[in-house]
Every structure is written in C-alpha cells, then in structure tokens.
Amino acid sequence: MKSITRLPHSRLRTLVGRGALSLGLMASAVSPVAGSIAMAQEQQPQPAANASGQLNIPANVQIFGKSDPNMRRATAIVNGEILTGTDIDQRLALIINANGGKVSAEEQERLRLQVLRNLIDETLEIQEAKSAGIEVDSDEVDQTYERVAKQNFGQDPSALDKYLTSIGSSAASLKRQIRGELSWQRLLRRNVQPYINISDGEVREMIERLKASKGTEEYRLGEIYLSANDTNRSQVLANANQIVEQLKKGGSFVAYARQYSEASTAAVGGDLGWIRLAQLPTDLANVAASMQPSQLAGPVEIPGGYSILYMIDKRQVLTADPRDAILSLKQISLTFPKGIAEKDAAAKASSFASAVKAIHGCGEVEAMATQLGASVVTNDQVKARDLPGALQDTMLKLSVGEATPPFGSIEDGVRVLMLCGRDDPKTSNEPSFEEMQSQMEDDRVNKRAQSYLRDLRRDAVIEYN
C-alpha cells in the first residue's frame, strides 16, 4: 500500500524569514546531536509466530482477566530509575511545538506512549554507558546545549531556557536528551566501532561503483521505519497511516521520525543522507524513483514492516549542480501597517515593486530602502538549493543586479531578493578513500546499534506505575 503526496515546502526546507534572511535546513525542535547519518536501516523479516523455537501462540486465544492491552500507565521505573509524568509532559511539549501546536487530543495520546518508549530507551542507553565507565559531564552537555540554542533557535542559552518553559518543556528535558545521545554515541565508539572492519577492497569497490554511476540521479531521503510481524501487521499499518495523515496536515517529518522510526536514523530525523536507488530495498527504490522533492510516499510495505518516505532533494552523481551555486543576496522588506485593507496592501506592494525595478544594482539598495521606509538584510553565503523551490528557479535565472518579483503577505509584509553576486559550483569531486570508508563504517555501526539496543530492552527490568 502506498501513496505519494506533496508536502508544504516549508516543513523541511528553508524559509525566507520575517525580518531576516534565514537560511539552512530547518531543524526540529528536538535537535539531533548524533553526527553521523546511516544510509539505510537493517531490515529483517520477523519469524512466524509458531516457527520452531519461537513463540507458541494458539489460533484461538482466550484472554483471562480484565486487563486492557490498550491501557498504558503514565510513568515507569527502568532498572530502578524513575521516569515521571513531568518527564513525559516536557518531552511531549517539544514534539507538539515542532508541529506548530496542531496536534489532536487523540494524536497526543499516541505521542505520549511513544515518548515514554523513547525515554525508556534513552534511560537504558545512559545506564549502559555508565556501567561501561562512560560519563558525560555537565560542562559538555552545557556546551552542546549552547550550540543547539545558537544553531537551531538563533538564541543564547538563557533565551532558550525561557522559550522552553513557555511551551511547557524545560532546559533539563532537552539536556537529558543531549546527555543520552552523547552517552550512546560514546558507548558505540568504544564497544562497537573498534570491531567494525571495512576492507580496502570494499572501499575501492564502492568508489568504483560511484564512478560508474556518474551522471545518474541520487536522492536525499527521509524515512520513518516501523517494524511489523504477522501478529501486529494490521495495527502497525493503521499507525503508519495515522502518521501519514498527520504529516499531510503539516506535521514535522523530522519530529515524527525521531519519535516513531525504529531505524538507526531516527536520531537524525530519519535522514538517510545522499543515496542511490541501488542502495535501497527494491520496494522502496521503485517508489523513490517516481518522487520529486517535497513529496511524501507511504506507507510502503517492505520485508519486516512499513516505511514512510520523504524526498528531501535529489541531484546527479559526481556532476555539478547549479543549485549548489553560492549567492550573495540583499533582502529588501517593507512591512504593512496593522489592520491595512487588502486593496491598500496590494497598492503598496505594486509601488514597492516599481521602486525596486528602478534600482541600478546592489549599490543603490540601502539609499532606496531608506526612501521607501524599508529594511535591508545582506547574506553573502546563500546556497541556491537552500532557498524554497519557487525561489530557486527564479534566482538562478537572474543576472547580477536584478531582483525577484515581490512576495509575502499582509501579515509579514512584502519583500524582494536582489542578486549581488554568484559563484557557480565546480564539478563535483568523488569522495576520498577516507570519506567513503568513514561513511561505510558509520552505516555498519548504526546497524549494530539497533541490535545492541534490542538486547538492552530484552534484559531490562521495567515496572509501570
């Protein structure tokens, strides 16, 4: 079962922000700390319920007692460590905020259960790291928190503290997540990575494949993977369809991937990185081949479960892409008075457009903006591909000194982008031997990490309150 839907471009791509030129991939409210991106998750079919050596479940099941399998308690004790309702509420607030607050009561309950499962996993990861003698000190957590504040929120830590409190979360909740991810990554580097061996022959073979595929398309995909077996397949499919519906309504793919995906890429918002179709399972490759940037597809049935795909971008292998051009831009913005009528706003926008056309190059922008009562923001390091799709095409057709047509709204005002310079990309170089080897190692480490976490869950003592 699959479907392809185009999502609003603003969900995962850049917006030209209010009052400033805001560039780069939009981050989820829960920022990934892990630095590596696994290229695909390990997918293994689940054994049949009655297979030899596996579970022995009769065809006619009789339930004794009044236990409701759909009921879940709010808190848990994981190997003696308490997870409180406050812990769950504050983490849930981050996800709801990442979705613009547009989450139904029913969806919030499903998210609450998922948050609890994630907190249990996070607790197990921190506990395992401590048992291995790995401690992440508070200074390191604070440094990462400060970096998250600046890179993803454009704020200093104290401002981020206040912001998190205002949405019902807390700095402590985000710092705990940071501590969990740092602890887990450090544990994997000690207990898993040293035992991953990628031979020189494997690396050379992968590089040769890359050279042979020069000029073919490669894709940057996001994935939400949900495992399923014969006993829960219909329930998992229903859950996948509900996630798709929430994404169609504007939910953050990154946030949902972090909370729901069972792939190792969940920590980075489901981002598989740049891959070729040959690297995907056949069922996913067939779907991805027909997708365009900003499209959503799924749920797609694959061995072991279901996947939901999001096409972030695509390009040609080892070929220069015009969208990698670095642009020097000036954004000229004119705000409207509060309560202005639509016809009056349209008239002002028209006058603004005429005035901008009369500007002869970027050197006259500031003087003209002063006359118009407009503001100017300059950015000399804008990659064309980081602009919204409609603006990408427009900007790449402009000559230096030309401006885009006006865009905006009554609430945000009207603005234009003027092209002041453009550095076209050079021919894309193949990855170095070391880069390819590192990428292959990361992929295998992440696959082992899934197995490691499954073992921790199986051995855990968990009491629900």
TrEMBL record:
<dbReference type="Pfam" id="PF00639">
    <property type="entry name" value="Rotamase"/>
</dbReference>
<dbReference type="InterPro" id="IPR015391">
    <property type="entry name" value="SurA_N"/>
</dbReference>
<dbReference type="InterPro" id="IPR046357">
    <property type="entry name" value="PPIase_dom_sf"/>
</dbReference>
<keyword id="KW-0143">Chaperone</keyword>
<dbReference type="InterPro" id="IPR000297">
    <property type="entry name" value="PPIase_PpiC"/>
</dbReference>
<keyword id="KW-0574">Periplasm</keyword>
<feature type="region of interest" description="Disordered">
    <location>
        <begin position="425"/>
        <end position="446"/>
    </location>
</feature>
<feature type="compositionally biased region" description="Polar residues">
    <location>
        <begin position="428"/>
        <end position="439"/>
    </location>
</feature>
<keyword id="KW-0697">Rotamase</keyword>
<keyword id="KW-0413">Isomerase</keyword>
<dbReference type="InterPro" id="IPR050280">
    <property type="entry name" value="OMP_Chaperone_SurA"/>
</dbReference>
<feature type="domain" description="PpiC">
    <location>
        <begin position="216"/>
        <end position="313"/>
    </location>
</feature>
<dbReference type="InterPro" id="IPR027304">
    <property type="entry name" value="Trigger_fact/SurA_dom_sf"/>
</dbReference>
<keyword id="KW-0732">Signal</keyword>
<dbReference type="Pfam" id="PF09312">
    <property type="entry name" value="SurA_N"/>
</dbReference>
<protein>
    <recommendedName>
        <fullName>Parvulin-like PPIase</fullName>
    </recommendedName>
</protein>
<dbReference type="GO" id="GO:0016853">
    <property type="term" value="F:isomerase activity"/>
</dbReference>
